[in-house]
Amino acid sequence: MAYNPQVVDAKIVSHNSKNGLFEIVAQLKDRTVCRLIYEQDVSGGAKVTHINRLLKEPCPICRKDYLCNCMGRFKEDISSQALNLTGMP
């Protein structure tokens, strides 16, 4: 079965207007919580640089209860859904 992340809630938790960095915490439908770190590119858009799974639930992909890098494969999909919910800061 393929993993299909669905963002149900997202909010901007920090924003630095001087260098264009900001963070969004997104909650997925399967109760996974992720932190997305963005930077602004030269055209003024947002580019996701990192994604971290906050350790509240086991990983929905590998079921590990500790740090893994599984969410990195889905960061573009999760990022686009989170930006649709929050918008650019």
Write a structural description:
- The protein has one helix and four strands.
- The protein has 89 residues and is mainly beta.
- The protein has one domain.
- Strands 1-2-3-4 form a four-stranded antiparallel β-sheet.
- The mean pLDDT is 91.
Helix and strand arrangement:
Elements: E1 7-16, E2 21-28, E3 33-40, E4 46-54, H1 75-86
Antiparallel strand pairs: 1-2, 2-3, 3-4
The spatial strand order of the largest sheet comes to 1-2-3-4
Largest sheet: 4 strands, antiparallel
Our estimate of the beta-strand percent is: 35-45%
Helix content: 10-25%
Oligomer: single chain
Regions with little confidence, pLDDT below 50 for 5+ residues: none
Write a concise synopsis of the structure shown.
The chain has 89 residues and is mainly beta. The protein contains one helix and four strands. Strands 1-2-3-4 form a four-stranded antiparallel sheet.
Which terms would index this structure?
mainly beta, 4 strands, four-stranded antiparallel beta sheet, 89 residues
